[in-house]
Amino acid sequence: MTCPLCGEKDVSTFEIHHITPFSEVEVHEEDNMILLCSNCHSKVTLGDYSEKDILKIKISLIKGKHPFLNKASANVINITDSINKGVITNNLEIKTSKKVIRLHPPADTIASSINHRNYIKYLIDRYHEFKKAEVGNKEMKYGLFYSSIKKQFGSKWDLLSLNKFESLCEYIQYRVNNTILGRNKKKNNVKMYSTFEEFLKK
To answer: In what residue span(s) does the HNH domain sit (predicted)?
Structure first.
């Protein structure tokens, strides 16, 4: 298979990228997913490509007009035999002639618990809000913080085990506290975010 972003051929390992972040849509929809090589996926996550850029590629794939590919769909893998070709992803929808297999978030992960997932997303949004006040809208790269979480914990935040929830909260809260806006609010004893317990009561 060919990576639709860089054109690298015979890529054996792909990663699924959610065009609109999964944390926002909370469902794995085929129209919102695209398979990219690991190198391109990292670049997209870091913000080197905009959501609009990736959406254009997705549309060209659906219409069968992408210059790298001859087939209309590069995001559905048709398995016609019993041989595993070695496709590795976080979330995958496989269409066969008989049925559609949907892989849901792994059990006991943050993604599997709506309350835990929503609270982490709330904290991430608070960090982005505080950071944007510091660097400005044009210089804000949302993907950088997601990458820093992945580097710190070794996985995407929503796929971390629930037993890492408290550590993840502390890390994000620490990052919020250490923004310029966060330090100013802390100096003036202004509350910056709700606790998990307070969040659940909203």
So the answer is: 3-44
